[in-house]
Write a structure and sequence with these properties.
The chain is of the alpha/beta class.
């Protein structure tokens, strides 16, 4: 295969001309989140090295390189790689956080799944097919209850997030539980994890009675991700007659070979959790299933199983479990399941919960009451996603007919087994760096399209990706850009229609600009799809919540308004993180985290872009009505997928929630709401402050943390703590 590489001479020349547009937290966020450890250099990457790695990992996915490409193709892709380097190095755009972390690594070569942020799976019996995980007791075409749970566990352990559907039409396909299973977990004294495993409920391996009885199965887990997944799959499938035809009633799982807590994970990165989280999860899942013997699993039961799996993954150190549970809109037990405080604290925190609705839904008050109680459920209009791209383009029956749900952040409507595939442009920064936005978005389309040519581990994913070639070209800093370029926000007012409803009035100039950029994306997809002789992407555009990636360039997150014009942003670090010494020397305030041991909370004073503009609005003072209207604008004129948005509301606005949900029922594909807490929480991630307080805190900072850090020569592997790639704190960064 022909390989495209970026020459060092080009990189030296480009980095002399281009200055990265680091935001106030940009370099620190990059260094602690995306800079990979380089053992041969005894340090982490520099930004230019990260960008080079990411682009080379992506550009070489072009399938034309696999079979004697022409010189014209090689030259075309080399030029494109150079353009991408300039765009991303200057922070006019970035691929997803997943690509920043994984692209160009050996782990990418092992699993193409690693380049996609998030996935969706329907919780119903499915076949494993030609997948990298295949239980030995099943044939490829045999459907099994375990399959979607195994898929979820596998993708979570690869660092992705997973949305899953427990709607009635899926749960009703699961047969009744036929068997109670006696689960015994064992471990040998030779294991370094012996004592903690025994404490978690395991038994000494020597206590197993031999030979095994006919109704017993023994499985020794290999020290692999696949081994963990297969253990869960077998436990689940033994509870059902069609996958347990020999009436097995006892399962013995041997944890002896699993590496101990603290051992290095060489592929994905980070350190192992040891077997304890797996032991606890298997026991808890078995309790859920045994309790339903002779009856059917409910949506709540299936969500509990997914949450217990997610809880175990969180214990794996570097991975954050991002889950979205999608239930039926009329399922009261599902809607209220987080009101059980004991189970919420134990495992139900592991998913954001949303309900699937259609045009006939009318239980808005119940939803609004629950939102005020705990900020959930979110709303996902799956019928709108099936039949509409951009709302402005009108009804198109089954234009995306396989859609069943969404990713955990809600910006991409997805079919069963399908992932989101993201690239993000920062229009304000790109313009400052001299880019024509049409060119920036064109490069983003081609970057994302290549990701669809990765090798995917699961058959269900491969088939849907090859069919849909779905991409999600997003933009962030939307509020900054519109206010800077047009002098006002997109919603210029409200006018009463013939039905007495207050409808938003949009700036026509902004509408025209978004239409132009959307067409540039469509044209770029047509051009590249013809070159690659593949399907056009079924959908192309989105607005993701961004969060961490937006911090790199210092822009507002996705479509969201800045939290405040001036604020204290708190970021948490492991107390061993070498960045802390540099931050302290530069004058940043820090204190021990009150929520987590061995963690330091550092305070960064931040001024929002355009904070002094008379038309500036923040999440603390923009109305709930304008936020809904802004999301609807982006759904109408930009995103043919969906728009991720967490709408914040003041207590006095709560009565408007059911009214606005109903008003925008057929104009927004997904949304969620949270009360605006301001500075009421101790060590809140974001705390609004006055301009005067900002100036005072800013004056305390006396050094450049980049220079100080490099001078200290303490560049060691950095630990990730409580940071997300989403404004709502739901998606994993890596």
């Amino acid at each position: 295969m022909q390989k495209i590489t970026l020459k060092e001479s080009f990189i030296d020349q480009a980095t002399k001309k281009i200055t990265p547009h680091w935001g106030p937290l940009g370099w620190v966020t990059y260094k602690r989140t995306y800079a990979r450890w380089q053992a041969d250099k005894d340090r982490t990457e520099e930004w230019k090295e990260t960008v080079k790695r990411v682009i080379e990992g992506n550009i070489n996915l072009d399938p034309r390189l696999n079979d004697n490409p022409s010189q014209a193709v090689i030259d075309e892709l080399t030029t494109e790689a150079e353009q991408l380097f300039k765009l991303i190095y200057g922070l006019g755009a970035t691929p997803s956080g997943r690509n920043l972390w994984i692209s160009g690594t050996d782990y990418q070569k092992r699993t193409g799944d690693s380049l996609n942020n998030c996935w969706f799976i329907a919780i119903r019996p499915q076949k494993y097919g030609d997948s990298h995980i295949q239980p030995s007791y099943l044939n490829n075409e045999q459907v099994a209850v375990s399959m979607p749970f195994a898929f979820l566990f596998d993708e979570l352990m690869k660092g992705g997030g997973v949305g899953f559907s427990v709607t009635d039409d899926n749960i009703n396909q699961i047969p009744s539980v036929d068997h109670k299973i006696n689960l015994s977990i064992v471990i040998d004294k030779s294991s370094a994890s012996y004592d903690e495993s025994i404490s978690a409920g395991a038994y000494d391996r020597n206590d197993i009675k031999k030979p095994l009885q006919e109704n017993e199965i023994y499985y020794q887990l290999p020290d692999t991700r696949e081994g963990w997944v297969l253990a869960v799959a077998q436990l689940i499938d033994l509870h059902f007659k069609n996958t347990n035809q020999n009436n097995v009633n006892k399962l013995i799982l041997d944890m002896t070979n699993i590496r101990p807590r603290g051992a290095k994970i060489h592929g994905f990165g980070g350190t192992a959790s040891g077997p304890t989280p797996l032991i606890e999860m298997l026991q808890d899942v078995n309790k859920v299933l045994n309790a339903k013997d002779g009856t059917n699993l409910s949506a709540v039961d299936c969500t509990d199983i997914c949450n217990l799996i997610g809880k175990a993954v969180v214990a794996g150190n570097v991975r954050r479990s991002a889950e979205l549970a999608l239930g039926s809109g009329n399922n009261h037990q599902f809607i209220t399941m987080k009101q059980d405080q004991e189970k919420l604290q134990h495992h139900r925190w592991a998913s954001n919960n949303s309900i699937s609705i259609d045009k006939d839904f009318d239980h808005f008050q119940e939803v609004a009451d629950s939102i005020q109680e705990n900020g959930e459920p979110g709303i996902v209009n799956t019928s709108l996603s099936k039949n509409y791209g951009r709302i402005a383009d009108g009804y198109q029956k089954n234009i995306d007919g396989d859609v069943e749900g969404t990713n955990p952040c809600g910006e991409i409507s997805l079919a069963n087994g399908e992932p989101c595939n993201l690239f993000e442009v920062f229009p304000l920064v790109a313009e400052k760096q001299g880019w024509d936005l049409n060119d920036a978005f064109r490069l983003g389309v081609r970057f994302a399209k290549r990701v669809t040519f990765s090798h995917y581990d699961w058959e269900v994913s491969r088939k849907m990706i090859q069919k849909n070639r779905r991409i999600g070209i997003s933009m962030s800093g939307i509020q900054d850009w519109i206010l800077n370029d047009f002098g006002n926000r997109v919603v210029t007012g409200f006018a009463k229609n013939n039905d007495g409803v207050m409808e938003p009035v949009y700036d026509q100039r902004v509408i025209d600009k978004f239409n132009t950029l959307y067409q540039a994306v469509i044209n770029a997809d047509k051009e590249y799809s013809a070159e690659l002789n593949c399907n056009l992407s079924i959908k192309h555009t989105t607005v993701k919540p961004s969060g961490t990636v937006a911090k790199l360039a210092g822009v507002s997150e996705g479509m969201h308004f800045h939290y405040a014009g001036y604020l204290i942003q708190r970021i948490r670090f492991q107390d061993t993180d070498p960045l802390l010494d540099a931050l302290k020397e530069c004058g940043y305030r820090m204190e021990p985290d009150i929520y987590t041991d061995h963690t330091i909370c550092v305070e960064f004073p931040v001024k929002a872009t355009n904070a002094e503009n008379k038309n500036f609005a923040s999440a603390g003072n923009v109305s709930i009505a304008e936020q809904f209207a802004t999301q609807a604008f982006l759904q109408k004129y930009w995103s043919d997928n969906a728009v991720s948005c967490t709408i914040t509301f003041q207590n006095k606005e709560a009565a408007q929630i059911p009214v606005l949900l109903k008003q925008y029922l057929n104009g927004i594909k997904s949304t969620s709401l949270l009360p605006y807490y301001g500075g009421s929480l101790k060590q809140a991630p974001k705390e609004p402050i006055t301009k005067e307080f900002f100036v005072k805190r800013q004056a305390e900072i006396t050094g450049n943390v980049i220079d100080v850090f490099n001078a200290q020569q303490q560049d060691k592997a950095l630990d990730l703590v409580d940071q997300s790639d989403c404004a709502g704190g739901t998606c994993p960064i890596r």
